[in-house]
Write a structure and sequence with these properties.
With 211 residues, the chain is an alpha+beta fold. The chain is built from 9 helices and 5 strands. Strand 4 and strand 5 form a beta hairpin.
């Protein structure tokens, strides 16, 4: 599984330099995006859900951040955006649990970029709880509360849910996006970061029109 994920990441890397104008991205089922055979229920009924599956250890996810973050900030009120950590074992699981812990504590929005920078630019591994706690403490997060939350039953439940969602979505690499539990696409299928968000915009409009 991990080899498949890494292979997908290498393909993605070759496409990262490509950009596309919004009007040039066709919506082609089976090519630009995949329509899931079994749609996954959204977390907030009544809103159009956009999910990004990512991993802190993925350089392509990190490179996607400057493009996706301004886009997320401008999403209309009828769209609910959420990040889900891809957890395929080893450091994937450790970093996923780190993200879920920060999210549960309500500090993910303050620490998310710093964690990405630490792993991608500073060479920190952040795979052990104590190491994570020491780092987030430098970002103003209470170390003891972090460790208690990290080891909590609630977080174990969220880990299980995240893994189940990734499986239901059929995710094999990151970053991958899902619109309204129905459509899966990534940088490889769309042609690059900007094109990926253009496809997301079109699918959001498609779902809005179908209401």
């Amino acid at each position: 599984m991990r080899n498949l994920i890494l292979s997908a990441a290498l393909v993605t890397a070759s496409l990262f330099g490509m950009t596309a104008q919004a009007a040039d991205v066709p919506l082609e089922a089976g090519k630009t995006y995949v329509e899931l055979a079994n749609p996954v229920p959204v977390s907030v009924p009544g809103k159009i859900e956009v999910v990004e599956l990512f991993w802190y250890g993925c350089p392509h996810c990190y490179a996607f951040e400057p493009t996706i973050n301004p886009w997320v900030e401008k999403l209309p009120s009828d769209v609910n955006f959420k990040r889900i950590p891809a957890m395929f074992g080893g450091p994937w699981d450790a970093h996923g649990q780190l993200f879920l812990t920060l999210e549960a504590m309500g500090v993910e929005h303050k620490v998310h970029n710093a964690v990405f920078d630490a792993i991608q630019k500073q060479g920190k591994r952040l795979t052990k709880p104590e190491e994570m706690a020491d780092f987030v403490a430098t970002q103003g997060v209470d170390k003891d509360k972090f460790l208690a939350t990290f080891n909590s039953f609630a977080i174990q439940g969220q880990i299980k849910q995240a893994k189940e969602l990734a499986q239901k979505y059929g995710v094999q690499g990151v970053p991958t996006m899902i619109v309204n539990g129905k459509y899966r696409f990534d940088l490889g299928t769309t042609g690059g970061p900007e094109a990926t968000l253009n496809v997301a915009d079109q699918l959001i409009a498609k779902e809005r029109a179908a209401k």
